Amino acid sequence: MASHAATARSLPTILLDRWIAFWASVFALVGALWWLGNDTVGWMWRAFVRRQVRIGASGITAQIVRVGVRSISIVMLVSGSIGIILALQTSPTLEEYGQTDKVANLIGVAVFRELGPLVAAIVMVGFAGASIAAELGTMVVGEEVEALEAMGLNPVRYLVVPRLAATVASLLALAVVSNLTAVFFGMVVGVTALGIPYDLYVSNTLNQLSMSDFLTGLLKAGVFGLLLGLVACYNGLKVTGGAAGVGRATTETVVQTVIFVVLSDLFFSTIFYAIGWN
After folding, report:
1. C-beta neighbour count of 264 within 10 angstroms
2. pLDDT tens sequence across 61-104
3. What distance in Å separates the CA atoms of residue 94 and residue 276, rounded to the nearest whole number?
4. Is residue 114 within 8 Å of residue 265, measured between CB atoms?
5. Burial of residue 40, with CB atoms counted within 10 A of its CB: 0-12 exposed, 13-18 middle, 19 or more buried
6. How much is the pLDDT for 51?
7. Contact, 100 vs 196, CB < 8 A?
8. How many Å separate Cα 182 from the centre of its chain?
9. Which of 79-88, 145-154, 176-185 has the lowest mean pLDDT?
10. 136 neighbors 72 (Cβ within 8 angstroms)
11. List of long-range contacts for 244-253, beta carbons under 8 Å, 24+ apart
């Protein structure tokens, strides 16, 4: 009886310890990402104001091709499917009120404000985020990062900066591609399957959308790209334990980035709603 009582009394303590450890790890991750981002931005600024500090345009271009250009087809496939799904799912309810043509309005707002940047970010997380983490993790395991440091070269400057610049630039461009693809395929379904006149569909879309819708989506895409690059680079550079550590880094990158992207999207949506920018 006494042992059962001791176990029962210790259970809240165990849960409290785990709760504290969880939040400690969260704050440690946020702090590490902050310092890594601060160091990366510092190198970008020094490269911008001092000619002797070079980042390497060729390295950034290569990373944009690897993480951005190669993601275009997947982003278009997923975004096009989202546009078709939205058209088919919203039309029955709108038809009950004789407002089938408003499918164009709903798709335009939903895609440009939320789904376009979010879909592009999630696709890039799986396609590019895990790849960056695995690549850097392999370099750590192979002691290539230590070799850079031994030669007096800063790993953040030569490894993180090009990848972070590539993820931000690529996601900004992919968000635009995602927006246009989803709206186009929604229009195709609206005109061919739902019987909405082409001119009316285009008119409703243009009348519904405003510059704020486009800018809020781009702002979110830029932040998503920043988070993706930071999380992937951080997890890749902290790899330990050989090949198993590389696998853990890729898994953690995908999970953490998706969580950060969704939470940041929630944050921005709440702020924009509160200030009436919607």
Report:
1. 16
2. 888 888 888 889 999 999 999 999 999 998 988 888 888 889 99
3. 26
4. yes
5. buried
6. 67
7. yes
8. 18
9. 145-154
10. no
11. 245/137, 245/141, 246/133, 246/134, 246/137, 246/138, 246/141, 249/133, 249/134, 249/137, 250/130, 250/133, 250/134, 250/137, 252/133, 253/125, 253/129, 253/130, 253/132, 253/133
SS3 content of the chain, % helix, strand, coil (to 5): 90, 0, 10
Q: Read off φ and ψ for residue 143, nearest 5 degrees.
A: 60, 25
Residue 158, both tokens: 């030569």
Query: Cβ(195)–Cβ(133) under 8 Å?
Result: no
Q: Taking CA 119 as the corner, what is the angle to CA 233 and CA 174, rounded to the nearest 5 degrees?
A: 70
- Furthest CA-CA distance within the chain: 79
CA-atom Rg of the chain in angstroms: 23
pLDDT band at 9; cut points 50, 70, 90: low
**Residue 63: both structure tokens together:** 């990373």
Nearest in space to 231 (alpha carbons), one of 125, 116, 97, 151: 125
What the block records as the tokens of 102 is 């408003």
pTM over 0.70? The answer is yes
How many C-alpha atoms does 38 have within 13 Å on its Cβ side? 6
